[in-house]
Design a protein that fits this description.
Blueprint (H helix, E strand, L loop, with lengths): L14 H9 L9 H12 L4 E4 L1 H7 L8 E4 L3 H7 L3 E5 L4 E6 L2 E7 L1 E3 L11 E3 L3 H5 L10 E3 L3 E3 L4 H7 L1 E2 L5 H7 L2 H13 L2 E2 L1 H10 L8 H12 L8 H5 L2 H5 L1 H8 L3 H10 L4 H9 L4 H10 L4 H12 L9 H11 L3 H20 L4 H20 L12 H6 L5 H16 L6 H10 L1
Parallel strand pairs: 2-5, 10-11
Antiparallel strand pairs: 1-2, 1-8, 3-4, 4-5, 6-7, 8-9
Helix pairs in contact: 7-9, 8-10, 14-15, 14-19, 15-17, 16-17, 17-19, 18-20, 19-20
């Protein structure tokens, strides 16, 4: 039943909402001033308005919301008329973004979604004056709560109970929710990983049943959810994607990694590797040939820099750099000053994971990593020559001595390797003398 009587939107409360408010009246959400002002302005014009969704959930959990979304009975044109600066970010679906200074606040009209014919988007949207209509179309109970200072918390689907029990549960029938939008299956696991929650049994069973539907979702949306899972506090929860057969649909090669005897080491690496996306992907894909890593990440539509870096980390996972400054400088020259520390961190993660899984101390390997870290930092702090542009001679200098064509590049490269062996030789007079002698 609707939380408001449509004929009199302003003050006609359905008694169910009063009961919910009484139960939840000890829940307080500290709304930002801009959100309070937006809600107040909408209400003063005779509308209802609430902060809704993830911002309410995170506030209750004492986490800092990434953004604040507002739901209202006002239709988009009413919202646009009330505020000076607005952007039609999704006006067809009822969303207007209100700009205050440099911050944007999405305001969306209560709505009822039509059929989801493509397994991702509703074919049609019907605006409503009923808050309950808007809340019951949402994915999970913990995301279906609304709040304003006048009413308090509106929690018609027991989201607070699920927060307290640390459970991810669909609003209503999970088969219906996942049939409407297949991406919600990955979102369930992502929220579980971010919050450290378990997934309710029926919700989990529905993911298994409908896993094949994930193929209806674009690779770009899939990698966003996968990225967030890998960067969460529990990246090893990706195992749930394997258990529910989601990875079989989106990343079949990962099934090989997570089903084999090395899965324990892989999951351990995911847990202990630094929270940097390229390092998380390198941990996940470390047992895969480098060319397959590239192929897998391209299929996920990741950006070229991420694909290159992860492939290089996997390729160099067994790279041995000698504990000598010239060797470290040569490695920096070959792989790049930004990738060398990542290679070292990845190798360190591999060592730690082996220690954890076998119980055998990797003292020699850890000492080697410590020496490489120190040498790298000393080289960077001194600003040693590690590229042609760092040489104290250039192509123009060589041309003055009669060099031309490809021999210029060859000579500069030769000088570079001499200087990387002995940085003290990087003086213009010394390098010129070498050219003359050459």
């Amino acid at each position: 039943m609707c939380a408001y009587v449509a004929e009199n939107q302003q003050n006609q409360w359905y008694i169910g909402v009063r009961l919910i408010r009484m139960k939840k009246e000890n829940i307080y959400v500290d709304l930002p001033e801009n959100v309070v002002n937006i809600i107040s302005k909408l209400e003063s014009d005779g509308n209802q308005a609430y902060a809704v969704g993830g911002c309410v959930r995170d506030s209750v959990l004492k986490r800092t919301p990434e953004d604040w979304d507002i739901t209202t009975s006002a239709v988009p044109q009413q919202v646009k008329a009330l505020f000076k600066r607005t952007v039609d970010t999704g006006i067809k679906h009822g969303t207007v973004t209100i700009m205050i200074d440099k911050s944007g606040y999405e305001v969306t009209t209560y709505r009822i979604d039509g059929d989801y014919e493509d397994g991702r988007h509703p074919k049609s949207v019907e605006f409503s004056v009923c808050l309950e209509d808007d809340l019951k179309r949402r994915d999970f109970t913990i995301n279906a709560m609304a709040y304003n200072n006048a009413t308090g918390l509106v929690d018609q689907f027991n989201g607070i109970d699920d927060l307290n029990s640390k459970i991810i549960r669909c609003v209503g029938n999970p088969t219906d929710r996942f049939s409407e939008d297949a991406l919600r299956m990955m979102r369930a696991i992502r929220f579980s990983a971010q919050l450290g929650f378990s997934i309710e049994d029926q919700t989990y069973a529905a993911i298994k049943e409908l896993a094949v539907n994930i193929n209806k979702v674009s690779r770009e949306r899939i990698h966003v959810e996968l990225n967030k899972t890998l960067l969460s506090d529990h990246p090893d929860y990706i195992m749930m994607m394997y258990e529910t057969r989601l990875t079989k649909q989106i990343l079949p090669i990962i099934d090989v990694v997570l089903s084999g005897r090395r899965s324990v080491v892989t999951l351990t690496m995911l847990k202990i590797s630094p929270k940097e996306l390229v390092l998380k992907y390198a941990a996940l894909l470390n047992d895969i040939p480098a060319d397959k890593v590239t192929e897998t990440l391209k299929d996920l539509k990741l950006d070229n820099n991420t694909i290159y870096t992860v492939t290089k980390l996997v390729e160099c996972s067994k790279l041995v750099i000698q504990e000598k400054e010239p060797s470290v400088r040569e490695a920096i020259y070959k792989y790049g000053k930004d990738i060398i520390p990542l290679i070292i961190l990845h190798q360190e993660t591999i060592l730690k994971a082996k220690e954890i899984s076998t119980g055998i101390k990797m003292t020699g390997g850890k000492n080697h990593i410590a020496v490489l870290k120190r040498l790298y930092q000393e080289i960077m702090d001194r600003g040693d020559c590690i590229s042609v542009k760092d040489l104290n001679v250039n192509g123009s200098d060589l041309m003055e001595y009669g060099l031309k064509g490809p021999i210029i590049g060859e000579t500069l490269d030769e000088l570079l390797h001499i200087v990387m062996e002995n940085p003290k030789l990087n003086e213009k007079e010394t390098l010129i003398a070498m050219i003359e002698n050459r």
